[in-house]
C-alpha cells in the first residue's frame, strides 16, 4: 500500500481501474471473436472493429452516468459493449440472428440498445453528430441531467455535418461531448494527407470557440479523467467539449481491408509499444493489483464471450414475419389502405 | 368558423399544438423573430418565447439532426426547411436516418417530428427555389408525406402530423400561402391518410395535390359550364399513407382517371396511382388513365415560361377535353 501512495496519477481507485480494465478487455475479446466469426463465415455483411481503440470506449463509458446517451458510428461495437449491452445481443446481431439486439434488422453497423443509452450506430458519416446535439437540446429543454456523447472517426471532421453540429452545440451551449477517435486513417487514406490541419478535430476547435483538447486515446486513465471533466462541464451548463483521442486501429477499416496501405512495421510498432490493453495491464501491476485478480477478470470475460458465442450460434435466424414490422410506429409497414 | 389565410393556418396549427403539449418546440432559419420568410410563423416567438421558437443557423443538417435527436429522446419538434429544394442538402436525414432508425433498431428508436417546408412553383424563383419534390419523399419507406391545399387542412393536418408517432414531411405550397378559407374555431385535428372528394362528379376523376387542387376544381367547373362534363376532383392531401379507397371509389364511379401533378414527369406520384389503378381497377376504366404533369425539365424563372411549365387551369381543361372527346 505504501508503494501506491508514491505513484503519480493515483487519483483513480482500484475498483474503477478494474472496471476500466474489464471493459477494455471485454471489447478486445469480443472484437477478436467477431473477427474469428467472420473467418467462419458466421458474421455476414461488413464489420468495423475497434481493436486497438478499446481505451476510448471504456474510458468514456466508465465516466458516464446511467441516463447518458451514446451515439456511435458503424464502428460502434465497442461503445455498445462498453455501455453494458448484452454480448449475446451484440454478437447475435453481427451474426444476424434472432437474438441480436435488433433481431438482425440492423446488423453490425447499426447497433442500438436504448435500454443502455446506446441511441444507435449510424453508417452515413457525420449524421449522428447533429442527432447527439438534438438529444442534448432535449436534455437542456426538459431540464434533464443527461449528457450526449458522440463518437466518430478522424474522417468525419471533413464532412459538413461535423461543422454544423459543433457550431450549433456551441451557439445553444448544449450538453454534448464530441469524441474524435483519430486512428490515423480515413478508411485507407492517411488522415493527414487529406486534411488541412495536423490534428483534424482539435485544430478546428478554436473555430467554434472550444478548447483544443488532444489526449492519448490508448491510455484509459487519461480518457477517463478527460471524460469526467467534460461531463462535469456539460452537466453544469457550460456547454460542449470536443476531444481528440489519438489512437491506432489495429484491424483493417472493415472486414474487407487487409490494411496493405500501412507502412512496414507501423502496425507491429503500435501493437508492441502502444497497445491499450497491454499498457493497462502493466499499470494495474504497477499499482499493486495482483496478477491473480487480472487473470480472474480475463478468465471471466473469456467465459462470458465464449458462452455468448455459443448462444448466438444456436439462436435461430430472424423469423420472416418480422420483415415488415416496425417500419412505422403502429408496428407495421402499410403505406396505403 | 374563422377566415384564415393558408399562412395564418400554419401559425395557428403550430400554436394549437404548442399550447397543448410542452414537448413541442419549433426550430428553423428566420422562423422566430422574423416570423419566417413566408410570414407563416408570425406571432409564435412572441407567444412562446425563445426557448420554444428558435432561430437556427443556416445548417439544414443540424436542423434536421437536432430535431431527430430530440424526437428520439422525448420531444415532438417541428423543424422548418425554408424551401423544399434545400432538403437536398440534408436529405440524408430524411432518406437514411429518420425514415430508417425505427426499422434498423427493430422498434427501439422513435422519431415523432414534423419537417415543414415551402414547396412548389409560381413565384418566379427559378429552378432552385420552386420545385415540387413531394414525390422524392414518397419514394422513401418509413416517413409520412402530407401536402394540404386549404387553410383548414393546413391546420388540421399539421396538428395530426405533430401528434403522429412517425416522422412527417409537411409540404406547404408557396403559391397557396395567401389564399383564404374557413377554418374551424377551437381545436382542429384532422386525420392523416384520408383523401377528400372536393368536387363531386360522375364523368371523370381528377386526382390532385396542393396547388393543383384549386386548379383542377376550376378546370372541372369550366368543363361543366362549357361542355356539361361532370368531373370529380379528389384532393389526396397525404401521399403517405395513401387513401386509395377514396381514389378507387371515385374511379369505379366515373371510369376515367386523370392525375394533375406539379412534380416533373418521371416517377411522379401520379405514376404510382395510375399503376395501382391499372393493376386493380383495369376493367373499371373506360379509357386510358392520363397524367398531366410538369414536363421533365428544370423550372424556368421567367413568368411566361413558368406559367406554361406547371399545369394550369387551361392545360388541365384542354387535356381532359381532348381525351374525353
Query: On the 0-100 scale, what is the average pLDDT of chain A?
Result: 96
**Pairing-aware structural class of the strands and helices of chain A?**
alpha/beta
The CATH H-level superfamily of the largest domain in chain B is Thiamin diphosphate (ThDP)-binding fold, Pyr/PP domains
Along the chain, the helix and strand elements of chain B come as EHEHEHEHHEHEHEEEEHEEHEHEHH
CATH-derived architecture of the largest domain in chain B: 3-Layer(aba) Sandwich
Tell me what the CATH architecture of chain A is: 3-Layer(aba) Sandwich
Name some characteristics of this structure.
heterodimer, A: 337 residues, Rossmann fold, 43% helix, globular, B: 325 residues, alpha/beta, seven-stranded mixed β-sheet, five-stranded mixed β-sheet, 12 helices, 38% helix
Descriptive report:
The complex is a heterodimer of chains A (337) and B (325). With 337 residues, chain A is of the alpha/beta class. Chain A has one domain: 3-Layer(aba) Sandwich (Rossmann fold), CATH 3.40.50.970. Chain A is built from 12 helices and 8 strands. The radius of gyration of chain A is 20 Å and the shape is globular. Chain B folds into 2 domains: 182 residues, Rossmann fold; 129 residues, Rossmann fold, CATH 3.40.50. The model of chain B has no long low-confidence stretch (mean pLDDT 98). At the A-B interface, strand 2, helix 6 and helix 7 of A face helix 3, helix 4 and helix 5 of B.
Topology:
The complex is a heterodimer of chains A (337) and B (325).
Chain A: H1 2-6, H2 14-39, H3 54-63, E1 69-73, H4 77-82, H5 87-94, E2 118-122, H6 128-142, E3 148-153, H7 160-171, E4 176-182, E5 185-186, E6 189-190, H8 202-205, E7 213-216, H9 220-235, E8 241-246, H10 266-273, H11 276-286, H12 291-314
Parallel strand pairs in A: 1-2, 1-3, 3-4, 4-8, 7-8
Antiparallel strand pairs in A: 5-6
Chain B: E1 2-5, H1 6-20, E2 26-28, H2 44-48, E3 53-55, H3 60-72, E4 78-83, H4 91-98, H5 101-104, E5 114-119, H6 134-138, E6 144-146, H7 151-163, E7 168-173, E8 180-183, E9 196-199, E10 204-208, H8 212-227, E11 231-235, E12 238-240, H9 244-254, E13 257-264, H10 269-281, E14 290-294, H11 303-309, H12 313-324
Parallel strand pairs in B: 2-3, 2-4, 4-5, 5-7, 6-7, 10-11, 10-13, 13-14
Antiparallel strand pairs in B: 1-8, 6-12, 9-11
Helix pairs in contact in B: 1-7, 3-4, 8-12
